[in-house]
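FIELD: query
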Amino acid sequence: MDFPKFLLGDNTDYPTAIFVIHTEFPRFIINLENDEVEWLEEFDQHDEKELENETENLINEASEFYDREIARYEEN
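FIELD: result
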């Protein structure tokens, strides 16, 4: 099964949180309420250096995805 690069997540246990799930490597979930990131991968020291460089871009992409999705909902 193919998944989109980003998915929106919601949970009634966290009524004010909005989660964006990144489904490609490196997989993560970001809570847009507080920008907390939970990585779903194990990283070694080599990966961590590369990840530091890419993290800001991935978080920006996740935020842009959310903004795009909300704009589409508001259009309907």
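FIELD: remark
Strands lie at 6-9, 19-22, 28-31, 36-39.
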